[in-house]
Write a structure and sequence with these properties.
Helix content is about 40%, strand content about 25%. The strands form three sheets. A five-stranded parallel β-sheet has the order 5-4-8-9-10, sandwiched between helices. It has a three-stranded antiparallel β-sheet with strand order 1-2-3. The protein is built from seven helices and ten strands. By secondary structure, it is of the alpha/beta class. The two termini are about 10 Å apart. Helix 5 runs parallel beside helix 6.
Length: about 200
């Protein structure tokens, strides 16, 4: 099912409500701080927030659907040859949907018959004669995201997808500000399956 692009963080009686809106390929984040006085006004505010959230979610889903519809080639950074790893299953399923998978991992030579590349730069260079990379799908720990964004910007790649649990707000904001389409903390396979 759909996981709404918002989160709650409650600490010392204060709730922070964050909405991430990826409309038009730009990730926007709003954070609202609710205290007890806000909670008393909740019956009045709730309908307005529902309308706002519905619109934000619809724009977010539309941007994701458009990205997946126009993409043909996905570079999977951190793709594993171990069938038990999430990257393997997701990449295999996305290939079954018709996407071309470009493995990026210096530890492997091939993945499912496809040549693997040690870096994004090597992968981009190898694609020059064929179809360009449309999405960089990241299966690396969050601390590696900033360097991956540096590579994406240098190579002028159009879209960055950070898988579930891969979160770097600053790097994602930098990529979005430079014009990249950015999706963070979402599974590309779950989103593709939701399109039917």
């Amino acid at each position: 099912g759909f996981t709404p692009p918002f989160s709650w963080l409650v600490r010392r009686g204060v709730a922070d409500w964050t909405v991430r809106d990826a409309a038009d390929g730009v990730e926007l984040t709003w954070t609202y701080r609710f205290t007890l006085s806000h909670a008393l006004a909740w019956p009045v505010a709730a309908p307005l927030l529902r309308v706002f959230m519905r619109g934000a979610m619809e724009r977010c889903l539309a941007a994701i659907a458009a990205l997946l519809a126009r993409a043909r080639t996905i570079a999977v950074v951190g793709l594993s040859t171990d069938p038990g790893r999430p990257s393997f299953g997701v990449a295999r399923a996305m290939r079954a949907y018709g996407y071309r998978i470009v493995p990026v991992n210096p530890e492997i030579g091939r993945w499912e018959g496809e040549p693997a590349f040690p870096t994004l730069a090597a992968a981009v260079e190898a694609q020059r004669a064929g179809s360009p990379i449309d999405i960089v799908d990241v299966f690396r720990r969050s601390e590696h995201v900033a360097a991956i964004v540096d590579d994406c910007l240098r190579l002028r790649l159009p879209a960055l997808w950070l898988q579930l649990g891969v979160i770097d707000e600053a790097a994602a904001a930098r990529a979005a500000a430079a014009g990249m389409t950015v999706v963070m903390d979402r599974c590309i396979l779950v989103e593709r399956r939701s399109l039917g």
